[in-house]
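Throughout our pipeline, every protein is held as a single compact record rather than as scattered files. The record that follows is passed on verbatim for readers who wish to inspect the format:
___
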Amino acid sequence: MKTQQIIALRFCRLPSVNGAPGLVSLTVSGANGNGSGRKIGDLTDVALRGRLAHYDLHPANEVAGIRRALQPDNGEVTVHEGWPGMDSCLKFWNDFTGSRIRPVEWTCEACAAVHRDNVGASVGEIYARACRCGRIQRITTASEIPARP
């Protein structure tokens, strides 16, 4: 039987944008919680809940506690999961079916600043991002499947 490595997942609620809850930042620490954290991307609440509930790795009370900890701006919590290795953990959290973490690029209409983020959201889900100049941009997650010509 292959031994499990304990991976530390740190979630931090980003500041709210225009009254809507901010996304949740995901940072993964090295095997057994050692080493510096590596930011994977930002998740919507829907994307986070889907991942936490998958495989029944986290009981309902734990998921509720995680959600409570992430309610306020800058709320944070660290969760530990057992994985065969870091690669399998990263693959699961990055490539989750229906809300894969992928690059999102947008340009502020007010100041023309270009922003690049890695975001996990369900197709059709809308979330807001704020530019440093204060302009709010609503982003709709598009399908990865190209439209037919």
Remarks:
- Helices lie at 45-53, 60-69, 86-94.
